[in-house]
Specification:
The protein has about 280 residues and is α+β, with helices and mostly antiparallel strands. Helix content is about 20%, strand content about 20%. It has 4 helices and 8 strands, in the order αβαβββββββαα. It has helices spanning about 30-35, 105-120, 205-220, 230-250, and strands at about 55-60, 125, 135-140, 150-160, 165-175, 175-185, 190-195, 200-205. The strands form 2 sheets. It has a 6-stranded antiparallel β-sheet. Strands 5-6 form a two-stranded antiparallel sheet.
Length: about 280
């Protein structure tokens, strides 16, 4: 999933620059935006999002309050390259993701590795639990090509506001290979996050950027995209989910930790996270 917009670099504060690992003109063509689903799928013109101006406000002097919330330890942030995509129904995708309190070279290396696996799997966004690391970290590039567009890193993201207007969109997910279905989400969102250096900032997103952020943010809350589907839409991919459950059992020798046939409908908030 992803996050795209036009940034006027002369207006960007220095504190935000570590968030943007590369900048170039973004294309709104279907050849880039279709990566939200699959390299072989194209959107109709009605599904193409106009990439809006991204409003950024840096708050370098303010800090997140971690009171009462669990902070990731060095062990929680340890990893071995190359990273691998965790597929449904692995319980890692439902586990609690800890806040990040240490901003060091290891975190930068983790973000680099996440971008590597994202590009190799034709994605435009990736959350840490999708590579087996249960922390509050996501990366994305709406263009989906190394060296093009913007590489964005968000640490400990929070949602401040989201629009009441809900829009449907055909989504895919790297943790659900070759599965695509419609999901309704708010059209726009205002978020609070930290960059790879720990600097805090706020940002307004709409259209495709908002869509991709919400998908990845859901992963950080242990919510999967089919949790937000209507029963009618879910029925269209039920067999595919059952296939993934069977593959998990064959691969691990353990029973699937969840089954689409026996699950009770998860209650999720209209905008974000669990209700």
């Amino acid at each position: 999933m992803a996050f795209a917009s036009c940034l006027h670099s002369p207006c960007l504060p220095n504190a935000l620059l570590p968030v943007l690992r590369s900048c170039s003109a973004l294309s709104t063509s279907a050849s880039h935006l279709h990566r939200f689903c699959s390299p072989s799928r194209f959107f109709s013109s009605s599904n193409r999002f106009k990439l809006p101006l991204m409003q950024v406000q840096v708050q370098a002097k303010r800090r997140f309050s971690f009171k009462g919330e669990e902070i990731a330890s060095p062990a929680d942030l340890s990893f071995e390259a190359p990273l691998k995509i965790v597929e449904y129904p692995d319980p890692i995708l439902r586990a609690k993701n800890k806040l990040i309190g240490t901003f060091d070279d290891n975190l930068k290396n983790l973000a680099d590795e996440m971008f590597d696996v994202m590009y190799k799997t034709d994605g435009i966004g990736l959350s840490a639990p999708q590579v087996g690391i249960n922390v509050q970290l996501m990366v994305f590039n709406p263009v989906g090509e190394r060296g093009e567009g913007e590489e964005i890193v968000l640490v400990n993201p929070r949602v401040n506001k989201y629009s009441k207007k809900m829009v449907p969109f055909n989504e895919g997910c790297l943790s659900f290979p070759q599965i695509y279905a419609d999901v309704e989400r708010p059209e726009s969102v205002k978020i609070d996050a930290q960059d790879i250096t720990g600097a805090r900032f706020m940002i307004n997103l709409s259209g495709l950027p908002a869509r991709v952020f919400q998908h990845e943010f859901d992963h950080l809350q242990g919510t999967l995209f089919f949790d937000r589907m209507t029963e009618e839409v879910l029925d269209s991919i039920r067999a595919n989910l059952q296939d993934l459950e069977s593959k998990y059992e064959d691969r691990t020798g353990f029973p699937s930790p969840e089954r689409i046939e026996t699950r009770k409908r998860r209650k999720v908030a209209a905008g974000f996270g669990n209700s």
